[in-house]
Design goal:
Helix content of chain B: over 70%
Order of helices and strands of chain B: HHHHEEHHHHHHH
Strand content of chain B: under 5%
Oligomer: heterodimer
Radius of gyration of chain B: 19 Å
Mean pLDDT of chain A: 85
Number of helices of chain A: 13
Shape of chain A: globular
Structural class of chain B: mainly alpha
Distance between the termini of chain A: 67 Å
Chain lengths: 329, 303
Amino acid sequence: MIDILSYGFFFLTVALTYGIICLGLNVQWGQTGLFNVGIAGFVAIGAYVSALLTTPASTSHIGGLGLPIAAGWIGAALATALATFLIGALTIRLRSDYLAIATFGAAVAIQLCVLNLQPVTGGPFGIGFIPRPFAGLARQPFLFGAVNLAIIAAVVVVLYLGLERLASSPWGRALKAIREDEAAATALGKSAVRFRLQAFALGGAIMGLAGAAQAHFIGFIAPDNYQPTLTFQVWAMLIVGGSGNNRGAILGSVVVWGIWALSAVAISAVVPADAQARAASLQIVMIGVALCAILLWRPRGLIGEARVASRHILRPSVARRSSNSSSEH
Amino acid sequence: MTPQVLVDGVIAGSMIGLGAIGITLTYSILRFANFAHGEFISWGAYFALAIAAALGSLAGGNVPSLGPFSFGWTLPVALVLAVGLTAGLALVVDALLFGPLRQRGSAVIILVMASFGASLALRNMIEFVFTSSPRYFSTDLQIAQPLGGGMRATPDQLLTVGVAIVLVVGLHLLLTRTAIGRSMRAVSENRQLASLAGIDARKVIRTVWMLGAGLACVAGVMSGLVVQVRPEMGLDLLLPLFAAAILGGIGSVPGAMLAGLIVGLAESSAVALFGAEWRSAVAFVILVAILLLRPSGLFGRHE
């Protein structure tokens, strides 16, 4: 029983770290309509920055400042915000898919730097001995798992409340207005470029924070953790859950991670050992097909975006109905 | 830096150019950045590999090499069939995915995202069918022949450059001298107006997919011939392809080819200067530079 519960804690903790990335993506895509294909790269920046700030001094790479974990997380968020801001500043004025191409390129470049800048990042060997929160409890696995879950869950709750508040704030409404009708929003004096850049950097900061949280939960990072598959998984999570909806982002991450973990278990149980690498690629085919299928048949995901712009105005559905009836007369 | 950098750059650049032409055509006519284009390169190479192997075993195993090249008659035949199969694959993906999304009037970015999902599925399907271990069209070792000026190239490498030149000239004539070429340019200028003028937009779209995927297949076979065939070969080429398509100016075929050569030369110089591990960063640096300095590219129109 304790074992199952321990595994449940572990599973939920991992799923919720994805949930944090998803919340960041939701700010960029769900609320602003900015397409980021470089998620894995930005998560890697957060993980590496936090690792370099908090690990004890080491001979295999520079850094190792031994700062407290909180400082690592804040540094991770700031560094990733800066990186996303720069990529955004380069492309947000241009056509919408240039941002996709640029973020894709950024992820390739970041992966390359992480792999090749061995004196800084440890190269292919990665960085170990990343301090884990409440490491003193590590001898009691059950309690340790529970505390870790509590920390990640607390981060998710704080982010959720903050982002919900932000979405209904004047800033969030301006963002939505720009996404829906840029010309009208610009006519009202909202600078589309500035709002988009802010949203893109905010989403990036959250992704960096998620990368740091993940790194400190696992205790070890290596370039292989930040392959394009990570980007795909997070996209699948947001699209399944429902983009534009923060609860959808969290729900999607738990559901998709659950499916992913279950299918991995099924493969290792059913498929013979020598064919497991092949079967694992089928797992990714499934995610790709699912992503396309949802775009085709259920673009709103499990829980779609709530259509309320502000609690101060009428619900759009009511407004539309009344305007329809008036036009019939 | 030695003159050899020039040769290596032109060889890599002619493959990048062929791939970038496909990207630039789909981009200018279907109006979205197709992240699945790299997978047509990989699928093309694997189609040719499978067909050549099947033909080889039908012919009783040992197929003698053609002249100075490392491959026998099976590869050219397999290439022609593989071009057809890759074009068919592109049409199937369009019929299942992009076509329905287009008809629904989906936003550009939804099409981009769908292409992202498609590329993931297509790439991992290759890994499932053919496993991830690298394959080769031929195990023959080729000796690089001196070209003068201290430069060397194998006959296979020279052939790939020659094929690329012939294809680009042919495509350029097709686009500028034939009815379907004029229709394609008309649709890329303005789809509504072109439809009003009686141009069949669906036929143009089919042609674009077949041309783009066919060229991708050739690029894949060339890359497989001079390097190796791997499931990630298309993904690794994708960033150089995008960099070349944007540098050349979206919609410009000569631009894409020229930019492909520039990207190839930049890559081979970077390998000579900083080492092979930084090769993939070059395309990103070029991309950032164009977006900063001249987002419309060398031959693009301002939008």
